[in-house]
Amino acid sequence: MDAEIRRRLTDAAIEASKRSHSPYSGYAVGAAVLTDGGAIYSGTNVENASYGATMCAERVALFKAVSEGGARVVALVVYAEPSLPYPCGMCLQALSEFTAADVPVCLVSGRETREFTFENLFPHPFEG
């Protein structure tokens, strides 16, 4: 991922994480996606007492992008402290419909950053 794009997405993900509603886990996560049209959409995790109604930051950012017309994700950053925020299976499956295999996914936590391709994180999506 280009350094300037990584910085812009990381800044957006960090800001989103500050709005996290995570009273149950205490794990604030922020995510930011870049669409093929050049727009950035961010999201944060929103937990719920029923747990099943909880929404992860990655899906919030994705759903915002899709609902605003930005259908193709070309880069993703996920941020959290104190550990790297690996996307869950539900987020990866949702992203798979709007993301190509070679899309860069950057996970950020403090001074640690790891970058993958989407396919490295989710090699076998369900394709119905």
At a glance:
With 128 residues, the protein is of the alpha+beta class. Helices cover 30% and strands 25% of the residues.
Q: Cα distance, first to last residue?
A: 30 Å
Order of helices and strands: HEEHEHEEH
Radius of gyration: 13 Å
Q: Which topology does CATH recognise? A: Cytidine Deaminase, domain 2
CATH classification class = Alpha Beta
| Total number of strands | 5
Helical amount: 25-40%
Main sheet strand line-up:
2-1-3-4-5
Mean pLDDT: 96
Coarse morphology: globular
Percent of sequence in beta strands:
25-35%
Number of domains: 1
Largest sheet: 5 strands, mixed
Question: What labels describe this entry?
Answer:
single chain, 128 residues, alpha+beta, Cytidine Deaminase, domain 2, five-stranded mixed β-sheet, 4 helices, 30% helix
